[in-house]
Amino acid sequence: MFGIRGTFVTSFRAERATLTQDKTGWVIVGTDDYALHHEGSLFLAGLRDAGRAYNTERTYAGRAALYLSYCTFHRLEWAQITVWQLARFLHWLVEEPLPSRARGGGGPERFRDENTANALHELRACDQQMYLTHADKACGESAARSV
């Protein structure tokens, strides 16, 4: 629909990380260099700190990585996306086939349903709120240190 069918490149991925000796969690890293995506990983840490279930964090990690990859592919600033750009993202989620599960590709085309697109839209709103919350906290801490 938007001229990118079959050419999407994933820039970010969700990875399970060992946080302490007996605790694991999820982070978002770049696919090429495994550099940590700071804000995305802070969002997941916020879910952990809020007591969300492990599977919730895992699901949101993959969805956040997909959103960040989409923004990178389209050269969009993930924190400043417009309503029109978000609408294009939601349409892309439903229109773009999922990668084949078959080794070497060639399996039947699979598509996300609209409920998945809506869940990612809700994630986007949560992600932006979490980013603003952490940014406010960080600014407050740095201001307190400078006094």
From TrEMBL:
<protein>
    <recommendedName>
        <fullName>Integrase</fullName>
    </recommendedName>
</protein>
<keyword id="KW-0238">DNA-binding</keyword>
<dbReference type="InterPro" id="IPR010998">
    <property type="entry name" value="Integrase_recombinase_N"/>
</dbReference>
